[in-house]
Amino acid sequence: GVPTIAGGVDVVELNVTTVTELDSAIPELWTPRLRADAERMTFWGPNFEGAEGSGKPIIRRDDFTKSPGDVIHIQVFRPLARAGVTGNTTLSGTEEQLALGQFDVTADWVRHAVAFNKRATRRAVFDAAKVSERALAKWMAKRIDDDMFNRLIITETLQTTLFAGNVATVASLGAANVFTPDEIDRCKLQMMSLGSLPFDVAMDNGQERPMYGIVVSEVSEYQLKANSTWNQAQRDAGIRGEKNKIFTGALGIYNGVIIYVLPTIQVSHYKWGSFLRPEARLNGSHSAAVTTITVGGTDTSVDYTEYFPQTGTNNVLIEDEVISFTGNTNSTLTGATRPAAGSGTTAATHADGKMVALASNSVERERAIAFGSEMAIRSWAVLPTNQNELQDYRFKFGIGIEAAYGQKAVVDARSNVPNYVLLNVAAPRP
Questions:
Q1: Taking the model in full, what pTM does it have?
Q2: Which distant-in-sequence residues (6+ apart) come within 8 Å of 250 by Cβ?
Q3: In the predicted model, is pLDDT for residue 345 greater than 90?
């Protein structure tokens, strides 16, 4: 019979609603809201973007006349350098050419989707669509950020990489070589020597101040907050009152450098880390004899080791043991030496779920990015939009997201990367 609730009011179950009706249950504002959420959730988002000639850290150009796979041209500009003329000196014939460079970037498709595989009520599908909208927007935002960090840290060839404490190599990083105001100064000086241009920040009094930026993880944030020099600088001259949106999410300012924090939050219950701070979790208990380190979960399509170095011999720290590895798959670090040669640690058994962190000697390490204006370029050929699909005789309903964009670092005439540097630091979790 028909179910009832107290008072005798009939309740009609709508679980016979077919999937053919689900499309109309999704609000028309889904795509614009998804697009706005995806941009808002990115780290390298609107706060850092500007049009050609703006001098922002990321130069953005949208060209919707292009198709995915087409090359989009973006112009970047350099400041004027000539002295000009004074008095009655004729200006004609002494004009300076506007110095610019053209960079080509290819916009490529990026797509993902979620699916419903059962009949449901309109209300249930409406709720599921709202959840899917946010989940897909967060996925797209992280994909955009990961693409940029991968480009800046892994893909590009830098002429200079810095090491905290002015040590010579990653292997020389020790527990004392954490992120401090000295490292902020080191990054700033290096960028100035490379000719990196600062970006201009509008202050409350109408003046513009040239600034650089550095992005670190939450662990380096913790180390910096423990530094008395940093704390005194924030008490004396914090970022109170600045209106420019580039201060959104900023930790503070030191010597004309704005510090930003990118938290290393797990993507899911099993995937952890970022390109700044590669981390993972052990999948299963590992005895002292195991030479293939298995991490993450059971979904073989997820790249649980994405953030770790893909080439060379590198070290990870698991509890008190330093382990070297030479390769990886989606879920393993392979070619492990237990313990790493010269580490002074001992091979041991590690329980399921223990943290696996990139390391130097017996201390966790990470990377920071210091940047100025025109660090990178970004172009969109197709902004994030939704797509719906019916399958299996209209029994399965899919909600997807698609976009086409391209990103790359700005290089100079000598093919050098002038507008950002990498800093390697020790970063032990407290």
A1: 0.82
A2: 239, 258, 259, 260
A3: yes
